[in-house]
Write a structure and sequence with these properties.
Distance between the termini: 96 Å
Protein name: DUF2726 domain-containing protein
Helix content: 25-40%
Number of helices: 6
CATH architecture of the largest domain: Alpha-Beta Complex
Radius of gyration: 26 Å
Pfam families: DUF2726
Strand content: 15-25%
InterPro entries: DUF2726, UCP028063_topo_Znf
Length: 223
């Protein structure tokens, strides 16, 4: 009689475990996924290429890095820790440059997307400034209109990363993110003048004036 009871109990346990496993499998099958697409849009990708070129072998560039992977709360108790952690749990840094040997974060870069200032954007900027300041991480802000000038990026980074020096201007295409090359016009009213053109010609026809003027941080202009 005892053997029958034991066998019955084992069968019941087996049935329950098997049922739970099947339910989990069915739920997993119902949860299908699809690829969202590129991690970066064209403007963000062009900036990423320019930043990698500016940094060279002096750092490792990473993008859309979770804040919680870089910083952690300094709190006196569990409640404070939880609140502080929740503030950054869903946020990320646009770009971080790490030491190539230790992968320690050297500088954080925020790319202004050029969209109109709203409450969400203001709150994000406040959070970034506070997090970086309290953690002692340098924060550089730059905008889309500057994002294709490698020489300007090198000037910004030189204060925070050793061995980065200025050099000639290198630009990346604003349409496809490819490197741009300098050409000399052979015909037309601009014959003999230099201009930048996408290296993917003829697939990409974007061109840019060689002497295009960009605003600088202090309101001056550079060519």
């Amino acid at each position: 009689m005892e053997n029958i009871i034991i066998i019955f109990v084992l069968l019941v346990i087996f049935f329950i475990l098997a049922q739970k496993k099947l339910v989990k499998q069915d739920l997993l099958k119902e949860s299908n996924y699809k690829k969202k697409g590129p991690l970066l849009n064209l403007k963000e990708g062009a900036f990423f290429n320019a930043l990698k070129t500016a940094v060279g072998d002096n750092g490792v560039v990473m993008t859309k890095v979770s804040m919680t992977s870089v910083v952690g709360p300094e709190a006196r108790n569990k409640k404070q820790w939880f609140v502080a952690n929740q503030r950054i749990a869903k946020s990320y840094f646009d770009y971080v440059v790490c030491d190539p040997r230790t992968m320690e974060v050297r500088v954080v870069i925020e790319l202004d997307n050029g969209l109109e200032l709203n409450k969400g954007k203001v709150e994000r900027e406040k959070l970034l400034i506070h997090v970086c300041k309290s953690a002692g991480i340098p924060l550089i802000g730059t905008s889309v209109r500057h994002s294709y000038q490698v020489s300007r990026l090198r000037r910004l980074l030189a204060a925070h990363i050793d061995l980065i020096e200025e050099d000639g201007d290198i630009r990346f295409c604003k349409k496809c993110g490819s490197p741009m090359v300098i050409r000399i016009a052979s015909v037309g009213e601009h014959k003999g003048r230099r201009f930048f053109t996408c290296s993917r010609q003829p697939q990409c026809t974007y061109t840019e004036n060689y002497n295009v003027v960009f605003e600088t941080e202090d309101g001056a202009h550079e060519e």
